[in-house]
Amino acid sequence: MTLALNLSGCPCHCPGCHSQHLWEDIGEPLTNELLGGLVERYQGLITCVCFMGGDAAPEEVLRWAQSVKQLATTSSPLRTAWYSGRPTTPETAPISLAVFDYVKFGPYIEELGGLKSEKTNQRLYKRVGETWEDITSSFWRKNL
Amino acid sequence: METYIIKRDGKKELFTIDKIKNAISKAFLAVGAFATEETLGCILSHLRVHNGATVEEIQNQVEVALMAEGYYQVAKAFILYRQGHTEDRETQQRLDFMMNYVQASNAAEGSKFDANANVEHKNIATLIGELPKQGFIRLNRRLLTERIKTMYGKELSDRYMSLLNQHFIYKNDETNLANYCASITMYPWLIGGTKSIGGNATPPHNLKSFCGGFINMVFMVSSMLSGACATPEFLMYMNYFIEQEFGEDYYKRADEVVDLSLKRRTIDKVITDCFQQVVYSLNQPSGARNFQSVFWNISYYDRYYFQSLFDNFRFPNGEAPHWESLNWLQRRFMNWFNEERTRCVLTFPVETMALLAENGDIKDKEYGDFTAEMYAKGHSFFTYVSDNADSLSSCCRLRNAITDNSFSYTLGAGGISTGSKSVLTINLNRAIQYAVRNNIPYQAYIEDVVDLMHKVQLAYNENLKNLQEKGMLPLFDAGYINIGRQYLTIGVNGLVEAAEFLGYEIKDTPEYAHFVQELLGIIEKKNKEYRTRDVMFNCEMIPAENVGVKHAKWDREDGYVVPRDCYNSYFYIVEDKSLNVLDRFRLHGAKYIEHLTGGSALHCNLEEHLSQEQYRQLLRVAAVEGCNYFTFNIPNTVCNDCGHIDKRYLKECPHCHSKNVDYLTRVIGYMKRVSNFSEARQKEAAQRYYAEKQKAPKC
C-alpha cells in the first residue's frame, strides 16, 4: 500500500507524457511538515512511500527518502521508492540508491508504452540485499 | 380578472362556470329532476373559486352547496358520478402504466413504485407482479395508520402521513405485505422437513435430498419475506451430508471415483454438481414470485468465528460439525463460484466472509490470506471484520449482536438468527434543511421525527404480532426465525448531503466526525429508549441507490439544496476523486460507524484488481480502522456479442474484440448487469469513482 507523491518541474518532457501538467512548477512546496503530516496520517496503513519524478534535483529526492526512513517505526516500517524518467540503471544512477527499496528508470516512449506494456523500455527494480532485481514483468498482469 | 384553476394533471385552465353547471344539471337529471337557471344560480352562489383552486376542491364545494340548498338526493347522485369518474381514471392510469412498462427499456425502469433488484428481464410475469403494487402501498398505509390511531391517536397518524407525503421519511418495501428480511436457522427443517411451514417435504436424509430440499425450502421461506433470506449454515449442513455419504475425511480423497455410472464422477465432481444444482436453481426467476429470483445470502467463517458460533452445535445424530472438512468445503465453494461466474451472470448467493480481528490484523492468518487470495482472483464478496465474535453480519443489511450462543435441540444455533421486520428511513437532508429554515435546532427536530418513527415501527410490530397470532407467519412459529431477534430498523439517507448543507467538509476531520456521531447518536439513544424485552431497534445507513435518487428528485423539486442526483449510501461523496482508498476505509471506520447497529457496507470501488498482498494489506487497514463491513467492487466486463465474461474492467472484449460490452457491478449488494438496473441505479453506478490503481511498486 503506497503513498505516492508527484514531484513537479519534471525536466524529462517525454513525448506523449500522460502527466504533462507535472512539467510545470505547480502544487505545494514539499516541506518536512507536509511530508511528516502525510506519513503520520496514514501511518500503520501504508507500507511504502514513492516519489514520482524529481529528476531536476535527484539529491533532493534522496534527502526526502531519508526523512521517510526516519519517520518509519519498528511497528510500521516504511519502504521507499523512486520513479525516475532518466535512461539510467541502478549502477549509473546520479545518486546513491542505498535508501531506496524500489527504483524505476527509463523515459516514457510512446511506441513501447509504460510499465504495463510488455514492450516497455522502462525498468522497475527491487532491492535484494546489495543488488537490484528487475521486477518489471510483475506489471504484466495475466488474465484473472 | 380571469381565474385559472388547476386540472387533475396539474395543468392550468381558464375557469368557466359552464362545466360546473353542466355537471350539476346532469346530477339533477340522474334523479329524474330538472335544474332551472334560478336553482343553478342559488347553488352556484355558494361557490368561492379562487385562482389556483383545484378541480377536486371545486367539486367538494358543489357537494356542500347541493346539501346546503337541501338537494340531498342530487348531492348523492353527484357524489356517485364523481366516484364513477375516479374509478375510470384509475383504470386508465393502470392502462397507461401497463403501456409504459411494456415500452420501458428494462424491467427496473418500467417499475414505477419499487423496482426489484432481482428481476433481469421484463415479460408478462413481471408485469403481473407490478400491477398490484399501488394497491399494496394503499393497503399497507391503511393498516399502519389505523393501528397508529388506536395506539397513539389520530394526530400522530396524520403527522406520519404528512411526513411521509412530504418525503421527510420513507417507508421501505411498502409494495409487499411480508416482513422484510431474515437470517434463518435451518435446524427446524433438518429435524422436521417443511411440514411446519406448510410444505409436505420430510427432513433431508442424504446429500441429494438435502440439495433438492434446500432449494424448495429457500423458495418457501422467501415467499414469506419481502427481502433477503440468509442461510448462514448452508455449507455447514451440506458438509454434514457429504460426510455422511463419503466419510469424515472425504476432502482428503476428493479425487476418488465414487460414481459407478458411466460418468465415473469423483467426490469433488459430485460436490461441485451439488453446488451447480443449488446455485443455478436459486438464481432462476421464480414462477410464484412474479419472475423474481429469491434473494439468497450465505456466510463463510474463519476458525474463530466457527468456534464461537457452533462450538455447542450438534446434528440430530449427536455429532458436532467438523472444522477441517468445512474449511475445505468453504474454499471449494468459493473457488467454484468464482470460476462459474465467468460462464454465467450469477447474482446469488451474496456471500459474507466473517473474520475476527486482533491487534490490527486478522486473527486467523490462514483465513486472512485466503480472503485476500479470493479477492485477487477477482471474486466479489463481502467481508465482515469484528474485534469480537459477539456480532455477525449474515445479510447485506444486518449486523446483529450475538447475545446467545447457546444450542438448542429444537432451534439449533442461537447466534445466527436475525433479521429486520421493517425499515423506515429518515431523509436527513430535507429534515435538517427544514429545521434550519424554520429556526429550529436541527438536533431537536431530528429527535422529534425519529421519536415518531419509533412509534410508527411499534405500530407496524403490533400488526405483525396480530398476523402471527392468527397463524399467518409460520416461519416464526416453526422457529426458522426468532421474532425476539428481529429488528425494527431506522434507516438513514442524505447524511452526507445534510453535512454539506451545514458547511462541513466531507473528510475525516474532527468536525465531520462529531456531526456524524451526534446525529446517529440521537437515533441510537431513541433505539435504546424504545427497546423492550420483545422489541429491538437498529440503525442502518440504507443502501439507497433507489431511494437516494427519489429523495434527491423530490427535494430539488421542493427547493431544497441538492448537490447531486443520488444521495450517498456512504460516509463520503462517492464521486470525490480526492479521497484515496485508505481515506474511504477510514470514513467507514470505528469513529463513523459507532452508532450504526445495522448495515453500512463500504463498497470500495476500484478500477483494477489488486494483488493478493495488496488486498491482504487492506484487510489490515480494515482491522486498524475498525471498518467492519466492506467489499471491493471492480466492474466485470460482459461481452454483448460473444457472451464472454471477464473479471476485469475493460473497454473491449478480449475474446472477440467487440466494443459492444456491458458491465457487471454491485448495487445494494447484488451483482448484475448495469444495463438491467433502473435509470436511478444506473445513475449511481455512473457516478462512482473507481479509484485508479497508483502506478507504484507491488508491495
Short summary of the structure?
The complex is a heterodimer of chains A (144) and B (699). Chain A is an alpha/beta fold. Chain A has two helices and six strands; from the N terminus they run βαβαββββ.
Q: Care to describe what's here?
A:
- The complex is a heterodimer of chains A (144) and B (699).
- Chain A has helices at 32-42, 58-71, and strands at residues 2-7, 48-53, 79-83, 102-105, 123-128, 131-134.
- Chain A is of the alpha/beta class and 144 residues long.
- With 699 residues, chain B is of the alpha/beta class.
- Chain B is built from 25 helices and 23 strands.
- In chain B, a hairpin with a 2-residue loop joins strand 22 (661-667) and strand 23.
- The chains are: A alpha/beta (144), B alpha/beta (699).
Secondary structure elements and their pairing?
The complex is a heterodimer of chains A (144) and B (699).
Chain A: E1 2-7, H1 32-42, E2 48-53, H2 58-71, E3 79-83, E4 102-105, E5 123-128, E6 131-134
Parallel strand pairs in A: 1-2, 2-3, 3-4
Antiparallel strand pairs in A: 4-5, 5-6
Chain B: E1 4-6, E2 12-14, H1 17-30, H2 37-44, E3 53-54, H3 55-68, H4 72-103, H5 107-110, H6 124-130, H7 133-152, H8 154-165, E4 169-171, E5 181-183, H9 187-192, H10 207-223, E6 229-230, H11 234-246, H12 267-283, E7 296-301, H13 303-310, H14 323-340, E8 350-358, E9 361-362, H15 365-376, E10 382-386, E11 391-395, E12 398-401, E13 407-408, E14 412-413, E15 418-427, H16 428-437, H17 442-469, H18 474-477, E16 486-493, H19 495-501, H20 510-529, E17 536-541, H21 547-557, H22 581-587, H23 590-593, E18 602-605, H24 612-625, E19 629-633, E20 636-639, E21 645-646, E22 661-667, E23 670-673, H25 679-687
Parallel strand pairs in B: 1-3, 5-6, 6-7, 7-8, 8-10, 15-16, 16-17, 18-19
Antiparallel strand pairs in B: 1-2, 4-15, 5-15, 8-9, 10-19, 11-12, 13-14, 20-21, 20-22, 22-23
Helix pairs in contact in B: 1-4, 3-4, 7-8, 7-17, 10-12, 11-14, 15-24, 16-17, 16-19, 17-20
